[in-house]
Records
---
Amino acid sequence: MQGSANLNVMIKAARRAGRSLAKDFREVENLQVSAKGAGDFVSRADIAAEAIIREELTAARPTYGWCGEESDAVAGKDPTRRWIVDPLDGTTNFLHGLPHWAISIALEHKGEIVAGVIYDPAKDELFHAEKGQGAWMNETRLRVSGRSRMIESIFATGLPFGGRADLPDTLRDMARLLPQCAGVRRWGAAALDLAYVAAGRYEGFWERGLHEWDIAAGLVILREAGGLAEPIDPEGDILRDGEIVCANGEIFDRFAKVIRGG
Ligand code: IPD
């Protein structure tokens, strides 16, 4: 498929950062046995990946604004356009040598996400979409799954770790959802969760306590693949509040009702 110039810039940046992270990931696998662990090394890898992405995007589009996980936000000369970047989503997986992490790059225009790239270097899967142009994984067009029966469906979420205040909410969600479905997965990279719903690998995903860089690129990929996404609180806002419930169109209403306590 033929992408726009902006999409090509995003893909080039994601692939370059992906090569850097893939090299560092091989090193992390060796560091697992050391007593010190790989924490500092991984923070440096994360920061280096963000610097690569920022250099590529800023060189190509110097007037756009910037929002990245590892650095301060910068307003661009063009106030209508902004990059939203997570250089390493799934940091904990990366740190533990688990090959499930990704680079996430989104372009926002006038408050709407118009393009997204999520690159998983360990599997060489590049998910991308532009508004109105469909969603793709490498050269394959993406479509959400067609499953409409809850009991045959699997869902993914993120489990609140380290004393986070939203644990009781998630446990209540689980108590309602698990008896009605075929399973719940926790993979550890929210950007890939959205991409996997877009790819029909599971039927839906929900999580609270996220940041806009975890969700932005996945949102346009999911919607272009035919998926539906809303904030868990219907009065809220997905990117501002960092919470999302999404699924294929067949099952969305029933799934969202369960997550919202119905
Ligand atoms: C994390 C992952 C994880 C989610 C966490 C996020 P990070 O992002 O997306 O799946 O459960 O809430 O913070 O920190 O690895 O970029």
---
Amino acid sequence: MVNFLIFGPPGSGKGTQSVRLAEKFNLLHLSTGDMLRAEITAGTDLGKKMSLIMSKGELVPDEVVIEMIAVKIDSTKGKAGFLFDGFPRTVAQTVALEKMLNERGMKIDSMLVLDVDHDELVKRLIARAELSGRPDDKDPKVIENRIDVYREKTEPIIDYCSKKGLYQPVNGVGSIDDIFVRLAEHMSKIVR
Ligand code: ADP
């Protein structure tokens, strides 16, 4: 099993690239953002509770996303491993993920971090709002908050993973195809 984290600020292209990479490398793509939006669409109690937090661009509680991942962690049947997208988003989530993987004889094998400058992120998210219909993409204040939350709560994971030799930065500016090739090149060094 080989397990990747795909990382980067909101608008860095994690979701788009993850779908393609998961297919190429036969990985199970787990996006906590997608799982949370599915709860909202299904109108579950959890979805109702989380939608206000998400619409403000804040993080939902660690326990909520850790539990979502915990119920999926035994579903790698037929897959080469996991591609975690938008999870972990805090150091506490990272520690919880490592524990779940270690208990199953697995680990985080690499963390791919998409580098995209601030202005490009804002431009992409505003453009995406039209297509996604996501409330958190529409409001420039919410976009700025999501980027701030990323810098404050999520970026420390880079340091944590760097110390373990897992950090792999990737230029996230360019065409979708070019960025895909860059990511795939790094991943193919790890996947056998
Ligand atoms: P983006 O990367 O564009 O911000 P996501 O789809 O990954 O989009 O996440 C959307 C929102 O869902 C986040 O702003 C946050 O409120 C919530 N969320 C998703 N994943 C997590 C997580 N691992 N921890 C806490 N909140 C999360």
---
Amino acid sequence: MNIILLGYPGAGKGTQAEILVKEYDFEHISTGDMIRKEIALATPLGKAVEKGISQGNLVRDEQIIKLVEQVLKRGRQSHIFDGFPRTIPQAESLRISLSVLRQKIDYVLFLELSKEEVIKRLTSRRVCSKCGAIFNIYDKSFTGSCSCGGNLITRSDDTLESAKHRLEVFEKQTRPLVDYYESSIGVKRLDASKEAREVHNEILRAIGLKK
Ligand code: AMP
């Protein structure tokens, strides 16, 4: 089964993908994580995109598509696409790559959240520098540390200025995907303002894994 998670940055796509991967046999394809790894390893790609990412701009389609194709080549049957596709050319490329593998997108889920809530979530998000776990400083369970012992950091693109810009980028470049998928597969909209576990249960119901 292949699922695309759409939604503003900070809507909880990464958190929901993590929960699903823990419970079901999905390959988590987070292009944001892949790009951050390239930056951390200071690869030529990482060096080329670092500045643009911290400003909230998208990476070029060809560069992102190449990364995703490397993962698809592993031949897994179930993927969760988190943060990919973000443009129509990426969506077209994904459709073609999956059809070559005799696969298709089964569900497109749109995690809906207001812009105000997104800005609040992004600027209060912390990420473990070691295992990538995602935290929010306003969560009751937030302790300021990660169980793996890694340091919690603020992503360079979670500043107020970059967060606002990312929302504009979403409206311009990613929002058209909603119509694109609405007219083919259909888009299931979920209320992402709820607590993560509740959103997870809604996702399970939307993809037929729970009644
Ligand atoms: P994310 O972790 O999904 O919020 O992604 C962080 C940043 O990585 C984005 O703001 C973009 O700069 C870049 N990025 C991630 N996925 C894509 C994509 N599919 N297309 C272009 N840029 C991307």
---
Amino acid sequence: MIDPKPTASHFVNGAYLEDTSGTPIEVFYPATGEVIATVYAATPAVVEAAVASAKAAQKEWASWTGTERGRVLRRAADIMRDRNHDLSQLETFDTGKPMSETLYVDATSGADALEYFGGLAGSLTGEHIQLGEDFVYTMREPLGVCVGIGAWNYPTQISCWKGAPALACGNAMIFKPSETTPLCALKVAEILVEAGLPAGLYNVIQGLGDVGHSLITDPRVDKVSLTGSVATGKKVYATAAEGMRHVTMELGGKSPLIVFDDADVEAAVSGAILGNFYSSGQVCSNGTRVFVQSGIKPAFVARLKERLAGAVLGDPMDETTTFGPMVSARQREIVEGFVAKGQEEGAVLVCGGTRLDKPGFWLTPAIFDNVTDDMTIARDEIFGPVLSVLSFETEDEVVARANDTEFGLAAGVFTKDLSRGHRMVKALEAGTCYINTYNDAPVEAPFGGVKLSGVGRENSKAAINHFSQMKSVYVRLSEIEAPF
Ligand code: NDP
């Protein structure tokens, strides 16, 4: 078993850095509630060191060819894959997610991002626009110093999803993990340097919202990419606007998953499980409002309940465990509050929503039936293992109800009628839609939200536009004329 204690709290200018005068942040292993490490929030001196080293290193990095930059990222991807087992254990220590997930999803998707953007780096270009005899060419330039601020559910993946495209485009990145999961991003920084990334280009500093705030108000910072809640997103977006900084906002959701009468029940139940209980439900794009057409609803709920009974809640380090604890005591309390509210407002708790009689932040997966659109559990993001079943009759009705939310991150449809599937996703207000599947997030596909769920896109070629800017150069070959 790896030792989860980091070498030091921060990784700045190519090396670990400690400053114990910062506020201590205890790191809990969610499965036992034990403190496994302590890191210290960045002091103003650490923030300064991070920003200064990023600023100093970025110009030289941008002068490398894309192929050279990409080579570093691809090497880092290989190292991550080689160390997948240890990195997965660390992710499990940080988040409590079982190894049956972390072995396949976290360092591996981080490596995918490094490999994908590493491959893309050499092909980043501007364009040539012919204007008669004259022409314009555009240059794709990096933004400069970018700040990444992460949520706690996917600490390795989020640090790579932000770092890889930023670095591919020639930027420097300063990443501030969530205070709840500070360990994994440090390893990403260490691996990048081992792969040949020059010092200062990928710094990780710890802290709470105030550290994030001091980073994004620094005049040397050009961009902020946040993964977090809508409330934090509004604050960070407003702060970034004061300095006219670029933003990417990956925020929360309350996504609909719609199951039609003609769907394969077993497949739809699988989709609902993947879209509600993976990572103990702590996934932003989860399809937590499960609209089921009335004819199929009894069979769907019965089978879902049966399948949930097969979830294995055990030691997350044991690969046969399939369901882990919540990330923190606080998050469990929030989710329990929603479970109580659901019952108070008249929804039927089919199963789950209870603690296990052991240490750690365990909460059993919950299904609510007979949920109506106005209930709190159908309107607010819960961010935990709580699935709500709502009944519907017609396609038009379910589209209107599914879209009646301030969020717009994802949406899914299960049906055997593919015309209806395509018609539905066209009508649904969401950044990512699924037909007969749920929650796939390959690096090749754009990911992000509409409405309050966010601004900009991560992953895919689309992310390049959010980490670079175009300069237009007008070249006149024709004679130049002036009015006087
Ligand atoms: P929070 O919004 O609480 O925090 C996100 C990050 O922002 C943390 O690192 C936090 O620091 C930091 N932060 C808080 N306040 C400020 C501030 N004023 N200025 C700068 N930084 C600040 O989210 P959670 O960590 O609780 O994550 C859960 C949320 O993230 C959910 O709403 C979920 O939907 C969303 N999410 C979205 C995803 C997406 O891709 N769309 C993916 C995953 C999660 P600290 O917490 O250390 O104080």
